[in-house]
Specification:
Helices cover 23% and strands 24% of the residues. The protein contains 18 helices and 37 strands. Helix 14 (571-588) packs across helix 15 (594-603). The chain is globular, with a radius of gyration of 27 Å.
Length: 789
């Protein structure tokens, strides 16, 4: 059997194993910070969906091609209600047509065959993808782009009169980030509402938080909220990251002190609570939120949630469906890429009409030092408020040496300090060095057991958790890299009286290198669609400080009030950074399409870190577009992009043709489709490359073969301008751009160019490069990838 085939099988087995492990264990879709149970319920055919019997019936466009309202939607609902009351849970009529109802499997199959029905699928449960970051981005922007003195990025008033709709766990409106002091009247295009609920009245909305909705299942306690109020903190954190007002003196118990603010502090917030406190988000609620948001008049939609990795099915994906119709109505939709990294092909929310966001670090490190005998300092991480002595007076022991004498205990379990594997007498009064490779027990669980055994501290060896700090309260826990862990272990083995201590966490500013790709951030290529490059962009998502519900005693450290700000990691946190930036661009250019805004953000992105070197992954290798898309967001660049790539609805329709959707289904989805439209006879996956997208992905390019794609750019800069093509070409590929010079005039706003890719050498690896249209003022960069498979 060919080695290449075995490698592919091995790779996908790893993905399946990873998903299965995650299904059985606690992970942080907010990264070790929310402890959300990821149970595998995101699969549309999950057992939970079948048990509650709720199906989503998606019927496509809300109007007929002639603009008349549809009557088949009402007729179908009426026929169901006649048979049984309260069978319909949600009805979608604003941006698209459909409903969610309790159906038998037989009824669902029957409805799926009816004219006008695009798809019928079980109601899936999606999961959440769970300050200084904006200051860092402004600094990073300064490395590459000089903002025009005539239109600087104004972080204090950015996004004025734009409305960001957020689908999440709700909002804590009393947070200082959401004050409406000195804010102007509510934008006139707002048509939404402030729903009252448990501990939430209409007075909780103001000129900042202008709308709040929640979506209950009246027949299910599990997914009934009764309020738009945030009970977990995730939605509040996301909302303040996107659009929070500046709050000086913000911190998490005096860590990360500074001014916390959102990316678009002038924007208004509309919260759509679609998720329970534990993280589950019903697809039927997500679709209803999209439907309401379209009618409410939002300008940007931000979703820090999604499904698990796997082959996308856009007709059965609530996020893809809702986003398509929102984009049709001129609303840009920004979604997190997922937290299933660093494995390849794990990126989610990959529909080309969605702006998909990866996560990176900022230049701030949370350092918890370990002091060894002789005052040797090991720079650990994590967030702890330890009260151990500052001098190294506590005995050290490693898990293997502290193994229980019981024969049934595995050495690997002891090395990882698995509860029940260590001897009480060997850990009592000591700091224990533990690996963290068992992928079953959280560090807090391990230390809880160690405490009952009399241990006084724990040093955890884990490269990933060293990058994305977890919070340990007053527990004396520090996290070190494998390299530093080996040094501590060597010290323990070579000293019969090894001593140490763990210091409380301090913040190290101006940390280098930054940004670095978050280890958890999901990676490309796109599963099953290699000719669509995802993620699109990267933004800060590691250790982000933002607002938090002030009554959350679970987050409080002993003898202190609950924090008003909290630190979380995840692509959940990266997504609202981009949503805020999109709102700022929208406020500057109200008539720009969602694709023009996306293009402006992507083509002005940054690829260089604060060491003036290429951005790296968590392993130290150079980041590729599979890791960060076009790069790290720039704050000033998108305000003056020079050129934009506009992707029209017809491009998305051709995309659906190219990946195998039939014309009958497509005509139900899009009301504006010409009656004589049909999918091309040449439609295939390779044709996805022809979409007018700001990035280019070419697959199945054999040695000595060539492929050509066209792109069209629109001039949004000076009328009279000339751009020259600069190509960054990897070894093994020849790239030709024709014409290689674009000359725009007052009457010539759009120009099409052709790119020819030729594989001139054998390569098993995917190859990356870029095409940049440059003049004295603008640099408009598009990444590309060329693959043999």
């Amino acid at each position: 059997m060919p080695k290449g085939f075995l490698d592919i099988v091995s790779h996908y087995c790893k993905i399946l194993l990873y998903i299965e492990i995650m299904r059985k264990t606690y992970i942080l879709f907010g990264l070790n910070l929310l402890l959300i149970l990821f149970s595998g319920e995101v699969n549309a055919a999950s057992a939970q969906s079948e048990s509650h019997g709720v199906y989503i019936v998606y019927m496509g466009a809300s109007v007929l091609p002639n603009g008349a309202p549809r009557n088949d939607h009402a007729q179908l609902i009426s026929s169901l209600i006649k048979r049984k009351k309260n069978v319909v849970l949600q009805s979608y009529t604003n941006g698209f047509s459909g409903f969610a109802a309790r159906l038998s499997e037989e009824d669902a199959k029957s409805i799926a065959q009816r004219p006008g029905v695009v798809s019928v699928f079980p109601d899936p449960v999606l999961q959440l993808h769970t300050t200084r970051s904006w200051d860092f981005l402004e600094y990073e922007t300064g490395l590459k782009i000089d903002a025009s003195p005539n239109s600087p990025f104004d972080s204090s008033s950015g996004g004025t009169n734009t409305i960001i709709g957020i689908l999440d766990t709700g909002i804590w409106p009393e947070a200082e980030s959401f004050t409406d002091e000195d804010i102007g009247p509510i934008p006139s295009h707002w048509k939404g509402k402030c729903m009252e609920g448990l501990n939430f009245t209409s007075s909780n909305c103001n000129k900042k938080v202008i709308g709040a909705r929640y979506y209950d299942d009246p027949n299910s306690n599990e997914h009934s909220f009764g309020t738009p109020r945030d009970e977990s903190g995730h939605g509040t954190h996301v909302a303040s990251t996107a659009a929070g007002r500046p709050v000086s003196g913000s911190s998490y118990y005096d860590l990360a002190t500074g001014t916390a603010q959102g990316g678009s502090p002038g924007s208004r917030i509309a919260m759509y609570r679609v998720c329970v406190a534990g993280g589950g988000c019903l697809g039927s609620a997500i679709l209803k939120a999209f439907d309401d948001a379209i009618a409410d008049g939002v300008d940007v939609l931000s979703l820090s949630l999604g499904a698990s990795p796997g082959e996308p099915d856009f007709a059965n994906d609530p996020v893809a469906i809702g986003a398509f119709h929102a984009v049709e109505k001129g609303i840009i939709v920004v979604c997190s890429a997922g937290n299933s990294g660093p494995l390849a092909t794990t990126v989610v929310n990959v529909a080309p009409w969605i702006l998909t966001v990866a996560a990176t670090t900022i230049d701030r490190d949370f350092e918890a030092d370990i002091i060894l005998g002789g005052n040797k300092v090991i720079k650990g991480g994590g967030i702890n408020f330890s009260d151990l002595k500052k001098s190294p007076v506590y005995p050290l022991v490693d898990g293997t040496s502290a193994k229980s004498d019981t024969n049934k205990i595995d050495v690997a379990d002891a090395r990882n300090c698995v509860p029940g594997s260590l001897d009480d007498n060997k850990v009592e009064g000591k700091i224990v060095l533990c690996e963290n490779k068992d992928e079953v027990y959280a560090p807090e669980e391990k230390f809880d057991t160690l405490k009952t055994q009399g241990a006084i501290g724990m040093v955890l060896i884990d490269n990933n958790q060293r990058q994305a700090p977890s919070k340990y309260g007053t527990f004396p826990i520090a996290v070190v890299t494998e390299k530093d862990g080996a040094e501590i272990l060597s010290y323990i083995k070579n000293n019969s009286n090894s001593l140490g201590t763990i210091l409380p966490t301090v913040v190290i500013p101006n940390y280098k290198p930054a940004p670095v790709v978050g280890y958890f951030s999901s990676r490309g290529p796109t599963f099953g669609i290699k000719n669509l490059l995802k993620p699109d962009i990267a933004a800060p998502g590691v250790a982000i400080l933002a607002a938090w519900p002030s009554n959350d005693t679970k987050e409080a450290i002993p003898k202190r009030e609950p924090p008003k700000f909290n630190i979380l990691s995840g692509t959940s946190m990266a997504c609202p950074h981009v949503s805020g930036l999109a709102a700022v661009v929208k406020s500057q250019y109200p008539t720009w399409s969602p694709s023009a805004i996306r293009s402006a953000i992507m083509t002005t992105a940054i690829q260089i870190n604060n060491l003036h070197a290429p951005i790296q992954t968590e392993t130290g290798s150079y980041a590729s577009p599979y890791d960060i898309g076009a790069g790290e967001i720039s704050l000033s660049g998108p305000i003056q992009p020079g050129l934009v790539y506009e992707t029209e609805t017809i491009d998305y329709i051709k995309f659906l043709c190219n990946i195998g959707y039939d014309i009958k289904m497509i005509k139900n989805i899009v009301s504006t489709l010409p009656s004589n439209f049909s999918c091309s006879s040449n439609s295939d996956a390779d044709s996805v490359s022809y979409m007018n997208y700001p990035s280019i992905a070419i697959s199945n390019l054999r040695e000595n073969e060539s492929k050509k794609v066209n792109r069209t750019v629109t001039n949004v800069g000076e009328d009279e301008s000339i751009y020259t093509a600069i190509v960054e070409t990897p070894n093994g590929v020849e790239v030709e751009v024709l014409p290689n010079k674009l000359e725009f005039t007052k009457d010539r706003k759009k120009i099409t160019f052709q790119v020819t890719f030729r594989h001139n050498a054998s390569s098993e690896n995917d190859l990356f490069g870029s095409i940049t249209w440059s003049n004295e003022k603008y640099k408009v960069r598009s990444p590309f990838v060329v693959s043999k498979a």
